[in-house]
Amino acid sequence: DFITVQELANRMTEKGSDIIKALMKMGVMATINQTIDQDTAELIVEEFGHTIKRVSESDVELELTGPEDKEEDLKSRAPVVTVMGHVDHGKTSILDALRKTDVAAGEAGGITQHIGAYQVQMPGGERITFLDTPGHAAFSAMRSRGAQVTDIVILVVAADDSIMPQTIEAISHAKAAEVPIIVAINKCDKPEANPTKVRQDLLQHEVFVEEMGGDVLDVEVSAKQGTNLDKLEEAILLQAELLDLKANPDRAAEGIVVEAKLDKGRGPVATVLVNRGTLKVGDIFVAGSEWGRVRALVNDKGQQIQSAGPSVPVEILGLNGTPEAGDEVVVVENEARARDVTDFRIRQKKEKQSTMPKASLEAMFSKLAEKEVASVPVLIKADVQGSVEAITGALENLSTEEVTARILHSAVGGISETDVQLAAASEAPILAFNVRASRKAADLAQQEGVEIRYYSVIYDLVDDMKAVMSGMLAPEL
Ligand code: GDP
């Protein structure tokens, strides 16, 4: 046993299905979760034109994370929760109110530190980790870098305002990431609050709460008065139980950077959420294309700690440079390996930047041709609601048993950075009808390899999609 197909695919930033195909050609039948031996992995790495660099005798590729954990080593871990929703619906207020429910806060005596995430302990001892950068921009930015830290999304909807454009965006983001939603119907203290309307309006966006016959949990809260926050936390724990979140704490740490900055006094500082293993003071680690030795670990209460296990948010001091949110953190044996891995990652980054857009109709076309996918994900932005409906309706009609159009998000308005982030995270092109992209969104699209196609005739848009889906896209684009 050496590495799973999935991990090998991740390391090489190749599709798992491509690896499986290449393995099949070599006469090796493997599924995505199966492990393959080192010799086979080496052949595959070469086949894909990646360089093999031995770090030690037993190690074939550079930034390999460790092997899969054994079932018996897994222990349950705290769920990681992101709060999303429309502006002013109370995301920040809810995060602040939830933070105050922490029973460990008083006894710790520490000062609340905003490090990008915090953990709350329930009276019963259970813990929940909250990412305290609300909104979907951070969520998708991380996801587009291949990092998914969120287990559960809290969708905040103000009961006096109901579903608004960013609520819909948030739903699209959570769905695209396949992360379960819990609805927090906020501002229920207001006389004009209408929670029933919220539940009904959610139906249109395919969020079915229990009262409407679905299985999405919802809780009526007031962040302002602190009502029902315990119920919200119970719902989170219930959802977490269903997800059966587990990790092996007894191994070298692997995690994700959720926030990073250059601090004047302390140097580069990164907040990390450990996925598995335990991070310790003195560990040598790689974070994206930076590395360091853990000089100190500081928790969300400003206290220095010696180690941090799965789902425990912690600031790391001792980095040689500032990594980026979404970067993968891996503890390695020694400095030499840390340098090798970062060199490799810097090279890899450069290679990636020079490849063709991954989120384009053309890319979708070749994926379909190779039967890697059976659906074409797209984002639709248009000038008026009528156009949005006409386009989504027409695209839905194109779907056949073999190929479906998967509309990740459709809305009125220009193309924003958030749209591009969602598109990048799901490798979906953006189809724009009579709208333009903001300068920042256009730059981001360029950087992330997201194609934005502009149309002024609905027929042309539908025709292009039809061509992609029927396998007859014209070569010239
Ligand atoms: P965000 O933009 O989603 O982070 O929203 P904020 O948390 O900043 O809240 C926006 C506004 O709504 C602020 O003026 C809050 O005081 C107010 N607000 C938040 N939660 C509640 C609530 O439960 N009840 C009432 N009445 N007002 C609230």
TrEMBL record:
Superkingdom of origin: Bacteria
Residue ranges occupied by any Tr-type G domain in the UniProt entry: 76-246
An example molecular function term from Gene Ontology annotations: translation initiation factor activity
Primary localization class, coarse: cytoplasm
Presence of keyword GTP-binding: yes
Signal peptide: none
Gene Ontology annotations for the cellular component aspect, listed alphabetically: cytosol
Compartments, record wording: Cytoplasm
Keyword Cell membrane: no
Residues at which GTP binds: 85-92, 132-136, 186-189
Similarity field: Belongs to the TRAFAC class translation factor GTPase superfamily. Classic translation factor GTPase family. IF-2 subfamily.
Protein's name according to its UniProt entry: Translation initiation factor IF-2
The species this protein was found in: Emcibacter nanhaiensis
Included stretch of the parent chain: 277 to 753 of 852
